[in-house]
């Protein structure tokens, strides 16, 4: 279940538009996802579209806390996560 939700969130993140100006992650997301960032995407700058793409690729490995923070931070909507979960995407 954790892996499915993480993958869905990561896919949703990748589907959101990302330019240099709107790839910002809140402090709460940065804190909740710090371990995920270091483990999977540490070579990318915090507010870059490259990080967004890396987090997408690492989706199934993201921690539950990171996923919750991404939803709470508005990086992906819970409705989108639910929709992708129910459709199997």
Q: Gyration radius, to the nearest Å? A: 12 Å
How many domains is the backbone divided into?
Answer: 1
Q: Could you tell me the mean pLDDT?
A: 74
Return residue spans where pLDDT drops below 50 for at least 5 consecutive residues.
Answer: 14-22
What would you say this structure looks like, in words?
The chain has one domain (2-17, 24-87). Helix content is 63%, strand content 0%. It contains 6 helices and no strands. Helix 1 (2-15) packs antiparallel against helix 4 and helix 1 (2-15) packs parallel to helix 5. The protein is globular. By secondary structure, the protein is an all-alpha fold. The longest helix is centred in the N-terminal third of the chain and has 14 residues, at 2-15. It has helices at 2-15, 27-32, 34-41, 49-57, 64-72, 78-87.
Question: TL;DR of this structure?
Answer:
63% of the residues lie in helices and 0% in strands. The chain is mostly helical. About 10% of the residues have low confidence.
What secondary-structure arrangement, pairings included, does this model have?
Blueprint: H1 2-15, H2 27-32, H3 34-41, H4 49-57, H5 64-72, H6 78-87
Helix pairs in contact: 1-4, 1-5, 1-6
């Amino acid at each position: 279940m954790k892996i499915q939700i993480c993958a869905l969130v990561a896919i949703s993140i990748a589907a959101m538009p990302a330019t240099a100006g709107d790839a910002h992650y809140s402090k709460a997301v940065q804190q909740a996802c710090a371990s995920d960032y270091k483990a999977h995407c540490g070579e990318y700058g915090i507010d870059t579209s490259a990080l967004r793409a890396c987090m997408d690729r690492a989706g199934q490995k993201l921690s539950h806390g990171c996923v919750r923070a991404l939803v709470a931070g508005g990086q992906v909507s819970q409705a989108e996560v639910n929709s992708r979960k129910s459709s199997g995407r």
